[in-house]
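tool_call: predict_structure(chain=1)
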Amino acid sequence: MTLVNNLLYVVSVAAVSIGGAGNGVGVAAFQMNRPVVRLPPQTQLLRSGGVATSMVSLSGLRLSRQLQMSASSSSSNLKLEQKTWMFQYQNNRNVQYPIAYEVASNPDNTNKDVVPILLLNGFGVGSFHQHRLMRQLLEQQRQSQQSTLNDKQLVVYGIDYLGQGKSWPTNCNDGQSDDERNLGYSADMWLDQLSQFIQEVIVPTSSTGKVHICGNSVGGYLATILTFRHPSLVSSLCLLNATPVWGLNLPFWDGKLPAPPVSKAIGRALFDTIRDENVVDKYLDVAYVHRKAFDGSFDDSFDGSWGSGDDVVVVGKGVDLGSKIIGCTEGNGGHAAFASILWSPPASQVGGDDEQCPSPSSPMGFYDALEQLPVDVLLLFGSDDQWCTPAVAKRMHTTLARGRNGSAQQRYVALDNVGHCPNHEASTAVAKVLLPWIEDSLVLPDIINKPIVVHEPWGNVSIREVSLEESEKLSVVDRIVSQMVG
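tool_result:
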């Protein structure tokens, strides 16, 4: 992929939504201040379009904005815990970085074997972007009558990468503080963070010593390389509109702070441009099919609820996603982090189980890693994504099948009427496919010849499995497009 194509792609997909800007200032205003958030006991299970949806009475519950809904009945509470874990980066051994993460679970299942799922974000958002999916996974597991997962405790993790959301070096000072010095916001650094987090936080609680990983956008890129490096930690992999590229890898600087004057000036100017409210709004308009999925028409907090007007009466509205993204950009570390990401190299071929220090001179190609993964892989792609188009998903599908020769399962499920962020725009549909996948990759619902229609509050989603034969029939134009993106 040429530098020009990289620039067009990365700036349009990643940079506009780069939320990281310092010490969690701003984003905290849109998340719960309580360490534990519990759903109230009055819960009514309603059905719309054949899919169960939980509607919760929130009267008296204090949210970032007062959101009240009518519904009643009784059901178990769900729990969201906000925690901090200290990350020690291998290239900066004397510094520990506070990493914000969240854990969602059903307390009624605490005595059962734990099945962990780690949700990895795209650029510019924190784990708040996963709240809808966290909620749906737990609700649908609870509603299922025949799943073997009913005998397990599903625990869903969300994490903010260092330099995004609420995870920041202490006392950020535009790349000049002691904690920021020699820190590069690179793929290798985030991969090091994720592998340590899994081994120190998730694995000790897992009944299998492994975790199911689900990554959206650049989270899919990281999940793929992470699984390639540490296959013994991963039960299965789900890619939600994964981006097969990383940054721009611009010349004359390795991305380690502090930035040289020219890179600093370019990063600052570009960052200030793309975090403009109108620019962020235009980006989201392109990334999503349905504006109501992100404009605050429906609450997307974990203990909020969302549904169609026929299902529940909604008074007020949630916080729009654009405000949450911009709210993350008010600290003192964002300009430096953004510049570092633009100049940092892609993931290297060494690292992880290979204890050598990663070397930027030997990049690890996304598709090279993908075709060597020894675990089952689910491609779950919004079909109306203007960047990671169906052609990109089909290339990933055929790469998996060609490179692994039947040693593991790969399945591609298309979500029509969904854009770049299925975890947020189609959480009900994603959970409906992801849960049986986690249970057993061989027993996904038969949806090749009979698509399933799932109701989301802003529109219906058609779920259809794409066969390998269909993926192999790429047109000349689709082949060119898929080669340009990655």
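agent: Residues 1-75, 306-316, 352-357 have pLDDT under 50 and may be disordered. Proceeding to next step.
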